[in-house]
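Page 42, continued from yesterday. The earlier attempt failed because a stray header line got pasted into the input along with the sequence. Redoing it now with the clean sequence only.
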Amino acid sequence: MQRRPLLLAASGLALPFLALPRLARAQAVWPNRPVTILVPYVAGGPSDTLARATGGALQAALGQPVVVENRPGGNGAVAAGLAARAAPDGHTLFVGASGILTINPHILRNLSYDPMRDFAPLTIAISAPNMLVANPRFPPRDVPGLVAWLKANPNQASYGTSGIGSSEHLTMELFAQRTGTQLTHVPYGGGAAAVTDLVGGTTELSFLNISTVAAQVQAGALRALAVGSLTRHPLFPDVPTVDESGVAGFEGGSWHSFVAPRGTPEPVLEAVHAALVAALRQPETEARLTRIGFTVTATSRDAFATRLERELGEWREVVRSAGIVAG
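This time it went through. Structure tokens are written below.
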């Protein structure tokens, strides 16, 4: 377990926040003591980066310590379970990655949390598409060519992911279902290992988060075939989407959110949401997150709740059709 307070001085960073009426109202009801942000993965990944970037801005604005606590394990289930059991008062927040909230419930047995029952959605903070990438020696150069090759060579191409049930795994399963193709899955213990073997030619292709493969694509170590968003990504404007490449409506990616324990009073939820959105929209926070390929979305609570319910249903069908079970 790693606990590190974000010891930032209440300097000029606080001024733009304190000028906002909504944030001033927020401070009237929350916080009245230090705030803990639970992160379900080790330090250095997207969830951790989000927590520290946002937490720093929150601390500067609100005048209370913000502690980022890394509690990895169980594909994110350890931290999620702790968050679900925390006091519902706004002083414990959880960085909920999309897979933890929308995929885990369908592939993991005996979960200690239920995303709809145990959490109050606050905001989808950041999102990023998965990018369809291939080893440069793999013959297909675009999505139509890939589909044709896969149909002519069923199960002859292998793809690596960060693990069973990850967003990369389910994105490729969705692609295979939509295109009528068959591939061999090679799960790794993280995205970095999957990238290493893909660059080395152990695997042929993968859908990996754009923030994970951006450097390799820019260096020419990997070939980008398409991105899994409905619009082209600003980091790679010349790379088409899967949708425009012939798989209509295809989307695959990940997002990272903030949730609070269910039962947190409505005025506190409103206060926390207002503070989080202001922190995410702070220029330094936004720049830090966009540099690594994420889009700061900072959604409303209602928009988040609607998307959570929809994606739970969508991934349930993908998992069922593919017969995926992690344990």
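Notes: The mean pLDDT is 90.
Reminder to self: strip header lines before submitting.
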